[in-house]
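Onboarding guide, step 5: your first structure request.
Type a short instruction followed by the sequence, for example:

Predict the 3D structure of this protein.
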Amino acid sequence: MSSPLTSSLPPSAQPPVRKPRSMLTLWLLFAMAAAPIVAAFFLFYVVHPAGKPPYGSLVEPQRPIPLNLGLKTLDGQPYSLKRLEGYWLMVMAAPGACDKECQQSLFYMRQIRIAQGDNRDQVVRVWLVTDDAPINPGVLEPAEGTLILRGNPQQLASWLPHKDGSLQGPTWLVDPFGHLMMQFPANPDPTRMRRVLAKLLYNNAGIKFKHVEPVQ
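The system replies with structure tokens like these:
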């Protein structure tokens, strides 16, 4: 029951009505809640009880995409991988000449993405070229649909875990929040890679990540 004093006030003197929270606040709360959900799904469904994934290795601690990678498109335009936050990224690094091992990595990434079926549009393939050499024209077919960017090998080495001073060989996985989270070995088992990625995509299907820009 309202107070007699309150009910007798003219409309202009009535207490202000509280406005509902803005949608921006709700989206911010959702974004803050989504990150631990992704981590929980990953740990429960992908990482084995022993603390290791069924294939590949975890990058610990996870490494966010640096702001100063200095990447450029093949026509010399600056490009930041942060533009792709919202997608899962399969990343490899190799010189422009792209030898047999490089071509195999490009082929595996393409086939693994295709094998994700309806979820394939959530995955972007990235080839980081580690020198200024021309791109081998023989790799254009297996590299079709791959985002090809040139980068300084020293800057890339500060972000990508590697052994023996060479970046070529491994395939890395970056999550939709822009965190480098997994590394698959050189000369990988593509079937096992496909299964790990498929589990990640399936178990995070309920989370609607924001795709910053469309990628073909």
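Each response can be followed by summary notes, for example: The radius of gyration is 23 Å.
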